[in-house]
Amino acid sequence: MLRLVVLVSGSGTNFSDLLERTRAGSVPAEIIAVGADRECTGLDIARAAGIPTFVEPFTSPRAEWSARVADRIEAFEPDLVVLSGFMRLLSPEAVARLSPALLNTHPAYLPEFPGAHGVRDALAAGVAQTGASVIVVDAGVDTGPILAQERIAVEDDDDESSLHDRIKPVERELLARVITDIAEGAIDLHEVGARTPKTQEPS
């Protein structure tokens, strides 16, 4: 069973979903700590569940803050770190310490629409489809190896909120699948650079 540290910044809805799956036994992992860059609802959920938490408020320079975050994470000796709505970029040095066991979900079909506004950018581009992705975090912005993806149709009446609401459940399912595959050996994170992304087209 994988030992997970999850980083959050906001409401923690994706984290909450993952917590339910791990405790139900559908994902063979245990969330051993939850960290954040600020006080947030995600931390409240973790505390209510009896999970250790930590807060490392962002300060400049980023490299020093990132090193402290990595120190806090490594103290728990996790097998995997999951960024779940964590809204800060870690420094390349911190990423190098944690990767490839450092995952993130993204609300677009990467490499399409990277960055903080993937849903908004997809709508602005007028595409018929966007998607969701799970990646290994690298030193770039949403440029790491892709572990799983799924396409999602953009409806004519979609706005940013409605489209994001339909992407989130897909992100959660993909993340659960990837973590399960890692736990069961179907994904070897040390070989992901040579892997072909797992893709699923809409039915």
TrEMBL record:
Family annotation (InterPro entries): Formyl_transf_N, Formyl_transf_N_sf, GART, GART_AS
Site (Raises pKa of active site His): D142
The protein's annotated pathway: Purine metabolism; IMP biosynthesis via de novo pathway; N(2)-formyl-N(1)-(5-phospho-D-ribosyl)glycinamide from N(1)-(5-phospho-D-ribosyl)glycinamide (10-formyl THF route): step 1/1
Entry keyword set: Purine biosynthesis, Transferase
Chain ranges of the Formyl transferase N-terminal domain: 3-179
EC class name: transferase
Pfam families assigned: Formyl_trans_N
E.C. number: 2.1.2.2
Positions bound to (6R)-10-formyltetrahydrofolate: R62, M87, R88, L89, L90, N104
The reaction(s) this protein catalyses: N(1)-(5-phospho-beta-D-ribosyl)glycinamide + (6R)-10-formyltetrahydrofolate = N(2)-formyl-N(1)-(5-phospho-beta-D-ribosyl)glycinamide + (6S)-5,6,7,8-tetrahydrofolate + H(+)
Highest taxon of the lineage: Bacteria
Family of the protein in this entry: Belongs to the GART family.
HAMAP family in alphabetical order: PurN
Protein role: Catalyzes the transfer of a formyl group from 10-formyltetrahydrofolate to 5-phospho-ribosyl-glycinamide (GAR), producing 5-phospho-ribosyl-N-formylglycinamide (FGAR) and tetrahydrofolate.
NCBIfam families assigned: PurN
Name listed for the protein in its UniProt record: Phosphoribosylglycinamide formyltransferase
Source organism (scientific name): Agrococcus terreus
